[in-house]
Amino acid sequence: MGDRPAASCCANGRTAIDSSAAIVGWLNLHDSAFPAGRLVHSNGIESWLRAFPDAGPDLIVELVVDYVATSVATLDAVVGVHAWASDDLEVLRALDRELLSYKTSENARDASLKPGRQLADTAGRVGMNCEVPDCARADYLRAVSSARAPGNLAVVEAVVQAGLGVDRRTATLGTLRSSMASALSACVRLGRLGSLGAQRTLVAATPALVDLAADVERTPLDALSSSSFALELFGMRHAQMSPRLFAS
């Protein structure tokens, strides 16, 4: 698996699109205004914050950083790296199913599947799909939209990024950074973290995210894991919360 830009489509031997265009597409995809549904889910953070009303900014930031390092970077992003590298529909569907098998609670499945399916649909609507109709990546996105593939966010996001011509490292960093930004945004919207504090955290986390991306690329599929147990447990409690701001 090389670190070259993925092809914009996987048919007829066509090469990656211009790198500048790929970066613009990457920026659009990871813009908070892009309607992918990421910001609808707190991944258990809302429930955790309600259980710990006295938790200060330092502890909240620690929770978010730990979630990205021990769940996203060891599970979702790893599957995403392998999906980025694949131009085979059945392999993509198999990766999708494997990731779903690790989502053991309804909360976890909702937070992975709903934004993934929305991203697949939005990518097609705004023109982020592959240029060639019989491209395996385009076939996968259509399979997600028609419920013939699960559509986990990490897999859909990797496929879209590969189709845009985004290189592997940048795609991995996009997944990690968006996950952290989404979690921090939940804390801000819930009134438990200031917006400047969230941005300081993202800036300070840059070296760690770069290191995590390198680790993700070296991780084989048989080493998948997730150990963000606190958020998983509080995520399971989320459905019983009333009222609540986030879907999960």
Automatic annotation (TrEMBL):
This is Urease accessory protein UreF. PANTHER family: UREASE ACCESSORY PROTEIN F. The keyword Cytoplasm applies. Belongs to the UreF family. Its main location: cytoplasm. Keywords: Chaperone, Cytoplasm, Nickel insertion. HAMAP family: UreF. Required for maturation of urease via the functional incorporation of the urease nickel metallocenter. It is found in: Cytoplasm. GO terms for cellular component: cytoplasm. UreD, UreF and UreG form a complex that acts as a GTP-hydrolysis-dependent molecular chaperone, activating the urease apoprotein by helping to assemble the nickel containing metallocenter of UreC. The UreE protein probably delivers the nickel. The keyword RNA-binding does not apply. It holds the Pfam family UreF. One of its GO terms (molecular function) is nickel cation binding.
